[in-house]
Specification:
Number of helices: 2
Largest sheet: 5 strands, antiparallel
Number of domains: 1
Number of strands: 5
CATH topology: HIT family, subunit A
Bound molecules: 2'-deoxyguanosine-5'-monophosphate
Structural class: alpha+beta
Radius of gyration: 14 Å
Strand order of the largest sheet: 1-2-3-5-4
Mean pLDDT: 97
Low-confidence stretches: none
């Protein structure tokens, strides 16, 4: 049985989101707790809990998510941005449906905390 998450509910339109992109493989929407002026999440329609669970057969999907994230960042007129995938609780993952953060619109520090 696959576990229900807040993102699976967003995918099923059971809860609303501020959507910025959608196609047959993924959707993207604004993060509810933005950490920068632009903070968008790209999530696959396929239920994958995290990068730990990806399989070789997800290669095209993962490539697609990265290409979509770059397209969205450019549409948001970002010159610089960070793409982040938190994997596991101690890395900051709170929602166990794979997602790419697109964070930009301010100077970003390195290393992250
Ligand atoms: P992570 O910590 O990497 O698992 O990121 C999860 C992000 O999801 C976090 O930045 C907050 C965001 N988030 C959680 N619940 C919701 C929600 O209901 N709507 C939206 N738009 N974002 C959410």
């Amino acid at each position: 049985m696959t576990e229900e998450t807040i993102f699976s509910k967003i995918l099923k339109r059971e809860i609303p989101c501020d959507e910025v992109y959608s196609d047959e493989h993924c959707i993207a929407f604004r993060d509810i707790q933005p950490q920068a002026p632009v903070h968008i999440l790209v999530i696959p329609r396929k239920t994958i809990a995290s990068l730990k669970e990806v399989e070789t057969s997800d290669k095209n999907l993962l490539g697609h998510l990265m290409i979509v994230s770059a397209k969205i960042a450019k549409e948001q007129e970002l010159e610089n941005w960070r793409t982040v995938i938190n994997t596991g609780e101690e890395a900051g993952q709170t929602v166990f449906h794979l997602h790419i953060h697109i964070i930009g619109g301010r100077k970003l520090l390195w290393p992250p905390g």
